[in-house]
Each structure stands twice: as structure tokens, then as C-alpha cells.
TrEMBL record:
InterPro entries: GH, GH13_cat_dom, GlgX_Isoamylase_N_E_set, Glyco_hydro_13_N, Glyco_hydro_b, Glycogen_debranch_GlgX, Ig-like_fold, Ig_E-set. Pfam families: Alpha-amylase, CBM_48. CDD domains: AmyAc_Glg_debranch (cd11326), E_set_GDE_Isoamylase_N (cd02856). Residues 1-23, 505-535 are annotated as: Disordered. GO terms for biological process: glycogen catabolic process. Residues 505-521 have a biased composition (Basic and acidic residues). Keywords: Glycosidase, Hydrolase. The gene is glgX. This is Glycogen debranching protein GlgX. The keyword Ion transport does not apply. GO terms for molecular function: amylo-alpha-1,6-glucosidase activity. It comes from Streptomyces finlayi.
Amino acid sequence: MSSAAEQEAVQESTGKAVEGRSGVVAAHGAPPVWPGAPMPLGARFRVGPDGVAGTNFALWAGGAESVDVCLFDERGHETRCPLTELTHEIWHGFVPGVRPGTRYGYRVHGRWDPWTGARWNAAKLLLDPYARAVDGTFTLPAEVYGHVRDWPQQQVADTVRDDRDSAPFVPKGVVVHDDDDWAEDRRPKTPWADSVIYELHVRGFTKLHPDIPPELRGTYAGLAHPAAVGHLKRLGVTAVELLPVHQFAHEDHLLSRGLHNYWGYNSIGYFAPHADYSASGTAGQQVGEFKRMVHALHDAGIEVILDVVYNHTAEAGELGPMLSLRGIDNRGYYRLQADARRYADYTGCGNTLHVVQPQVLRLITDSLRYWVTEMGVDGFRFDLAAALARSMHDVDMLSPFLAVIAQDPVLRRVKLIAEPWDVGNGGYQVGAFPPLWTEWNDRYRDAVRDFWRGALPDVRDLGYRLTGSSDLYAWGGRRPYASVNFVTAHDGFTLRDLVSYEQKHNEANGEGNRDGTHDNRAWNGGAEGETDDPGVNALRRRQLRNLLTTLLLSTGVPMLVAGDEMGRTQGGNNNAYCQDNEVSWLDWSLLDQPEWRGLTELTARVLSLRHTHPVLRRRAFFSGRAQAPDGLRDLAWFTREGREMTEQDWYAPAATLGLYLSGRDIPGRDARGEQVTDDSFLTVLHAGHEPTGFTLPGPPWAAAYELVLDTSLEDQSAAPGSPHPGGSTLTVPGRAVLLLRVRA
């Protein structure tokens, strides 16, 4: 513990102790606090004893000595109400007269002993982990740190307590009245196999949209606007995956450079919609606005999936701010090292939530159920999910977190997507998550990128990736839709930048271009960045069509990134997490340019084909075996000579592949019990620069084919309908995907 002399010096340098602060109403001047109830956790407005309306406050703070709930009026004056009831480590009380819209926080009293992980500091106003709404912005001045942030000896700074009051500098929770009725809401309930995910940022998607009123741009209401929903409908996506919308804070190192955390992977309020995305207000109005957005998307048949960050919080490591959990019970919420001053960091963000602890599991699952049952969302994508699946140290697929999710009657029914890795030892777990879970499949991303840039040593991996990744997921009842296929994501190059840059250009982030991955697997077509060369630009647009078409025709669940369908660029920045500006916002004027509007139309067309033809969205893996006496199989691979690929062919590099999908042998039945049948298709992928001949397989595969899609064409309306006999040789243009339908 820091010496008495150190503490006295801190008192002198940081001002008077909290108890002497003006504007604070002492406990004897506070309203009465009735016993209330320990459940549910959080602040819940209700009718109490004798019909008196008020709010019940309940906070888990296992090792605390006492807890005050602090109420703030419109002028910021604080009234402290001690919670004297303690039930199973939950401090609780009912405060009559506290109504929706009231701002509040907690002060939690206890020992200051960082060497044992105890970091209680009642001078710091703490955000309720269960707050349904948050009013205000985290700006992170020195007063919001539990320790003296600017202590001269930084190696021990986290052990020196800061006794300045943080209340004037931190956002407050808001009491919210749960009054929305979901009885009229109709969830789309799109089956996994039929799903197409569109990853977007609430702010960036609508910030520059010309048909959305300026006051709604960048907000939940903006995303609910018919102009935004209409674009999603025209594309044919079935679900939006929203980058984090839980209340988050900006990191100190960004604020010091005049930047902000744009992506939002720095959560601090797991129940509260991020207030900055609200057009209607932040005194609880953001809750209703979010719900209305979900209603609007559901009415359009579009599901809402949230990207959630339960692996760490915005409080960072031992030198981070004290905003919520650290001051409530540091040892109870976070994984600590053997040296309890330090945090176990499996996330690269300074801390890791201790998900093995029952109260942390409760916090996460209560949050998830809240967003499903009261906010209407349809699923979740879990950031760094391997960190959540760790037991004490190692990733464990029988961990408490995964076990709780599997048996929960609400959560096991929604869409669950894992980012199946973290930054700790043994953290890469692609293909390892249990049934119920789907996964971001980065092996799909890498194989497809490498094929189209001519860098695959052989085509074994590509074959698996295009057909659902059975090598990763054909176990334990998992299906092809366990693979969420993507070529780009928010983290990395946009699709246009992937074909325009080979090196990252992140100078605007202020980190000397050291941030962001070096492994881009990109090819610029012969010039780095934007160019006036018409040949290079035409090649890049063709490569965009190839990548998009490959993604949307592959077995599994495709994920598009907002703007890739219209040629959005970030100027080569592959880590634009702190660019809340035109670098990250969608430029809707691209749709006024024919070359980019054509890319959008191609995306919609291929998605329409996918929705129409069940053979392109199979619910079971291919067998590769003959299902009938004629020898026709559900899946076959062909070389450009028109012969079936041998094992030797798979171990050799190849620029041309033919993939035959039989619509006659689709396993499963429709809702009426009838056998599902469809057209059969041949997809030819040619990554070579020069045209090549491809011999079309004859009987039993097909007597003739008709061309449906040719990505070498800028104008896709000229492609369909051309007949080609089986056994004939078709000229495939350089760098193109051809989709041919078997003629009946």
C-alpha cells in the first residue's frame, strides 16, 4: 500500500476529499430508502409498497463494505442514498419517487489495496453495469482514474489512490421505463442456410445518405428510414450485423490525438444503446429509438444481429480509468494475474472479463437475454469469442460460458456467431466451437483472396472453402452454414482497396503506420492506390466482380461489408477504427457513377439467384457420391480439359476450376415433406490473366448449358441465355467467373 506521506501528498495535490464537496446532499438529507429487492439487478422503475411509485436499485458488489446510489437533478446536484440491504452479495434498496429519466450512479466503499486486487475508491462515481441508458460522454480527464494518473513514478502510479470526485466528469445511468410491447413485432426468423449477412456501422451507413433528413443521419432513426431500409431490400440481404452499439468509451490515447473510437469495440454499458447514435435524446429516448429501428427492419424482413464485446471493457489495464466494474469489485469481474495488480490480457485491450465467475456469467447472459426479449434483436456476433470460452486459462469448449448458452431457453434459439480466436496462447479455434454456433471463417477469406491474386500453392483448401468447409465443420451435427464466409470485414481493407493497394496506408491513425495487419493478401493490379490508367481500373472492377460473385455463390453463409457492393474505399487504411469521418462513412454518390452502380446491380442479381435456387444454399454437406445409376453425383470438380479432378490435381497449382452442383440430389425436404429439387449449375473460376478454353462436361452431367453470369462483362444484361452443348469447348475470358445452368 502507498505510504501515508504519499496519500497526504495526493490529498494536497488533488483537492478536498469527496465528503467535503459542495453540491452533494448528505445521507441524512436524502429520501428514504426502503429495503426493496435484490432481483432484478439494475435500476427498475415500478410500483412499490402501498402503491408508491419509485425505483428499485440492485448492485452486485461482492467484497464491498457499503454502497451508495447517487441521484442527480437537472443542475447536476447529487443526492446520496445508502443501500443498507445486502442479500447474497447484492446491495439493494427501493427509493420512492425516483422516476424514469432520473440520472444516477454508484459509489462503492471498500479497501484500497491494489497489491491484492482491491481497488475500491468511493470518490469515483461508477456506471451501473445494468444501466439501460447512459447520458453523457466519457472524456477521461485525470479525475476519472482511481489512481493518480499523472503520478511521477508511473511504475507505481496505479497504487496511489486519487481522492478527487469524478462525478462532474462522467456520464450517468438513466432510469428507463419498460413500456414497449413487442406483441405486434414479427421476427423474420430466417433459417441459417437462407441467411445473407450485411455488416454495417449505424453511424457510417447513413451519415452521408442524401435521402435521409440531416437530423437523422448517423442514428438509429436514420437506419430505420425507408431510404436506408430500401437499399438493404434491393440488395437482398436478410440480416444486418451492427458494429458495437453497446455504450462504449473512447480510449485516452485517441482523445489525446483528437480522434475517437469509431468502431466501438470498447464497451462499458452492456444494456445501454450507445447514446451518440440517438436522434431523439439521451435521457432514455435512445432505448425507444433503437426498438423502433428493430421494428422497421423486421417489417422489411431483415434480422438484426449485434456485434458484442463481452471479452473486455473500456477500463483497460491497471493504468486505465475507473468507470464501472473496476470500482465495484475489481477482483470479482476481471481476470487477474498471480501478481494481482496486473490483469490477464487475452484481448490485447488491457483486461479480460472473468467469465468463469457466476456474477460475470450472469451479467453477460442477462444482457444477451435483455437484447433479445426487450430490444428485439435476433442474434449476436461475439468479438474474440475464444476469450469467453476460456476456463481458468485454456480455451475450453466445455467452459461455463458455452454450457450456459447451450441450455438457455432464450439464447439457444437465436443466431450465435463466434469470432473464433483471441490473442492468447491457444486462442485460434476456427472449426472448434460446438453445435448451435456459427463462426467467422478466416480460412475462407484467405483462400479466396489468394486464388484471385494467383498465390495459392494448390487448390485443396479452396475446394473445401467453396463448398462449406466440411473439413472444419462436418462434426457433431454441424452444417455448412456453420461457416460464415467473408472476403472482407470491418477490420482490414475494403473490397475496393483489396484490389487497389498491396500495402496499408494508416498514417491518419497517428501511429506511424505501425497499426493494422501486414498480411493483406492483396493485389493492386499493377499500381498502388488510385490511378487514371483505364486498363488497371477495368481490371480492378473485374476483380471486384470476381470476389463478390465467388463469395455469394459459395456454400455457407455469405457476409458482405457495407459499401463493398458500391466500391467504397478507405484510401488504403486497413485499420480505420479511429476514423469517424469520410474515410469510414459510406459515400452514396458512388451510386451515381455507372461503373459502381453496376457493381451494386450485380450483387443484387447474384443474391437473387442465391435466394431462388436451393442448390446454392445447401443445408447439408455434399457427399461426392453417386446417388443414381447414371453416376451423377451431387458435387463434381473438373479441370479445364473437362475431366474430373484426380487427387494429383488437388496437390497442384491451378488457375482454372470447374464446380458442378447437382440440383437433383439436394438432401432434405420442404415444409410439405416434398423432396427439394432444383436446376443444376456449373461454375467456372478462372484466375489466369489470359483467356483459356474450358471443355464443358457432357452426359451424364449435361447435354447442354446456358450462360447465366459472366463477370468479365461490365454490363451483365448481355450475359444470360447463350447455349453451349456438353462436350464443347467454351472460351473463358481472363480473370472471370462464369455461371452456367444445365438445360433441361
